[in-house]
């Protein structure tokens, strides 16, 4: 998801500033400039970033939904992949990694026309493998989705 260009651009950033909310937002905006599938999630707003943690907001509109007017599962997976990968980067890793496993548990449907909260947490980051968790909450702060994400980090 994150090109070497983007990661190398931020490689020299001091570790105490690497995971700042502003820096994570800049990284996300750079990702959007590559005109890939990330354009479907362009309205993500980074609310908070700490070392190993990213909290964001996303407005679910019609383009993100299925025929039932609920958030499409593939879009949920993309959101979780993006935010957990940013959590890994906020942990000070200069490599967003390659997904080895992404597991989502859908607890309740997310209706169209609402802001949702997406959280990404780097629970364990080793030399080559990172274990990440993600959560999505609806506008009423009800837990709608949990996820686990394992990433391999190239050297």
From TrEMBL:
Keywords (alphabetical) are: Hydrolase
Q: Which GO molecular-function terms appear in the entry?
A: fatty acyl-CoA hydrolase activity
Cite the InterPro entries for this sequence: ACOT13 (IPR039298), HotDog_dom_sf (IPR029069), PAAI_dom (IPR003736), Thioestr_dom (IPR006683)
Q: What region holds the Thioesterase domain?
A: 69-144
Task: Please give the CDD domains that the UniProt record associates with this protein.
Answer: PaaI_thioesterase
Would the keyword Hydrolase be found if you checked this record's keyword annotation?
A: yes
Q: Which SUPFAM superfamilies match?
A: Thioesterase/thiol ester dehydrase-isomerase
Write one Pfam family the protein is assigned to: 4HBT
Record keywords: Amino-acid biosynthesis included? no
Regarding protein family, the annotation reads: Belongs to the thioesterase PaaI family.
| PANTHER family (UniProt xref) | ACYL-COENZYME A THIOESTERASE 13, THIOESTERASE SUPERFAMILY MEMBER-RELATED
Q: What is this protein called?
A: Thioesterase domain-containing protein
């Amino acid at each position: 998801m994150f090109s070497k260009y983007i990661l190398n651009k931020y490689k020299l950033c001091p570790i105490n500033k690497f995971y700042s909310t502003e820096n994570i937002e800049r990284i996300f905006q750079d990702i959007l400039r590559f005109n890939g599938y990330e354009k479907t999630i362009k309205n993500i707003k980074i609310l908070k970033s700490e070392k190993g943690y990213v909290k964001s907001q996303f407005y679910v509109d019609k383009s993100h939904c299925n025929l039932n007017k609920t958030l499409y599962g593939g879009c949920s997976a993309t959101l979780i992949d993006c935010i957990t990968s940013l959590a890994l980067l906020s942990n000070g890793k200069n490599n967003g990694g390659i997904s080895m496993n992404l597991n989502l548990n859908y607890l309740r449907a997310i209706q169209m026309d609402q802001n949702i909260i997406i959280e990404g947490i780097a629970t364990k980051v080793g030399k080559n493998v990172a274990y990440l968790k993600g959560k999505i909450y609806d506008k009423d702060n009800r837990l709608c989705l949990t996820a686990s994400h394992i990433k391999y980090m190239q050297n």
